[in-house]
Amino acid sequence: MIEMHDVWKVYDNGVEALRGINVKIDRGEFVYIVGPSGAGKSTFIKLMYREEKPTHGVVLINGVNVKRVRDWKIPHVRRKIGVVFQDFKLLNMTAYDNVAFALEAIETPRRKIRPRVEEVLELVGLSDRMFAYPSQLSGGEQQRVAIARAIVNNPSFLIADEPTGNLDPENSWDIMYLLEEINKRGTTIVMATHNKEIVNTLRQRVIAIEQGIIVRDEEGGEYGYED
User: Where in this chain does the record put each ABC transporter domain (predicted)?
Assistant: First the structure.
C-alpha cells in the first residue's frame, strides 16, 4: 500500500523536514501519526498524496513511485486516495453536491453518481441533511460530509490530517467511530493527530515522528506526549 525507503525532504530554505524515513503500511491497517508540532508529520502526510515530492528516497503508493509520476498524471494517482482535512475544505454547495463533485471530477457516468452519493451519505449518517449547505451544518456534520466526499470513489486508503482538530469531544468520538467503521470495511487509514485520549483509547499502530525521524513504531501504541 504505502512504502517509504530512505526518504528525505529538504525544503528550499534548508529545513530538513524528514530524514531517512523507512516505513511500510499494509492494506487494511489503521495507523496514527503522532509527534510534537513541527516534527514533520504534515510533510509525511503530504508525501502520501503527492502534495510534496521527496528530495531523496522512494515513496511507493500502491506500487507507484510518486516522484516519477508526471504532474498531469497526479489526479489519476489520487483517485484511489481519500484525504480529509482539519478545516473540512467544503465547497459552498449542498452536502450532496460536495460529494457528487468528487465523482463528476473523474467523469463518473451520471447514472452512477446519485446512488453512490446517497449510499455514502447514509453511511456517514447524513441522509436527512444531504441538501443542507455547509453554513447550515455543525462542525461534526461538515466533517462527515468531507469524509463522505473522500470515500465516495472507494479509495484504497484514506489520509486524515487532524480530522478531529476543530471538533468538540462528542463530535470527535463520532468521527472516530465512523473512521473505525470505514477501516473495518477494508480501507487503510493513516491519521495524523494530537488527540492523546483518542490514541490511548482506540489502540492502533502508532508511528511517532520527532525532528524528521521515526522514533517509535508500535502496534497498539500510546500517544506518548504531554500536551
Answer: 2-226
CA dihedral 149, 153, 159, 162 (to 10 degrees): 10
Decide: 45 and 159 in contact? Cβ < 8 Å. Answer: yes
Range of the domain at 39: 27-54+68-218
**Quick one: pLDDT at residue 227?**
61
Residue 122 lies in a domain: yes
What's the rounded Cα separation, in Å, for the pair 180 and 30? 8
Task: Measure the CA–CA gap between 61 and 132, rounded to whole angstroms.
Answer: 35
Tell the burial category of 198 from Cβ atoms under 10 Å away from its Cβ (0-12, 13-18, 19+).
buried
4, 21 in Cβ contact below 8 A? yes
Number of domains in the chain: 1
Q: Check pLDDT > 80 for residue 204.
A: yes
pLDDT number for residue 67 = 87
109: CB partners within 8 A, 6+ apart: none
Flag whether 184 is in a domain: yes
pLDDT band of residue 75 (cuts 50, 70, 90) is confident
Average of pLDDT values for 100-121? Answer: 93
Predicted confidence (pLDDT) per residue in 12-42, tens digit: 999 999 999 999 999 999 999 999 988 999 9
DSSP category for residue 227: -
**For residue 194, pLDDT beyond 80:** yes
Sheet holding 16-25, edge to edge: 16-25, 2-10, 56-61, 64-65
